[in-house]
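Example 3.2
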Amino acid sequence: MGRRARRDMRSRREPRPEVRDEAVQARPAGMHPTLAPKLKVWVVLADQVQFGYGRAQLLRAIDDLGSIRKAAAQFGMSYRRVWGYLQELEAAAGFPFLARRVGGWGHGGAALTPEGRAFLTQYEAFRDQVETLAQQHFAVCFPAPR
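Structure, written as C-alpha cells:
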C-alpha cells in the first residue's frame, strides 16, 4: 500500500484525540492577554524513562476503554509501541501499572492496578500544582500592559 493510500485511509478514521499540554486554560487576572506559559511536566524514572502528560492520557485511555489495543488505536499508535512503553515503564517503576487479562477478542483487557492508579493520580495532582504556580509567577513577571 502506497503512502497516498495510507494517508487517505488515515483521513477517514476518527480524529486523533488532542495530545497537548493544557498549560493555560483560564487566564488569571492581571496576566498579559497575548502571552501564556506552557510547561511540560515530566517525572523521570530510573534516570531514563520519562512519564508526562501524553503518557498519562494513554494510561487513562487504557483504563477507560479496558483495552491496550483500543487505546493505542485512539492515539494513532501501534499496539507494539504501547506494549513496549508499558514494559519499559513498569521495569523502571518497579511495579505493574496495568493488570492484564489475556483472552483474545472480547475476553481480554487491561485496567490500572491500585499502584498505577495512585501514581497517575499523584502525577496529575503534581502537574496541576506546578501549572498553577507557573501561572501565578508568570502573571507577576509578565503583567498586563496598562
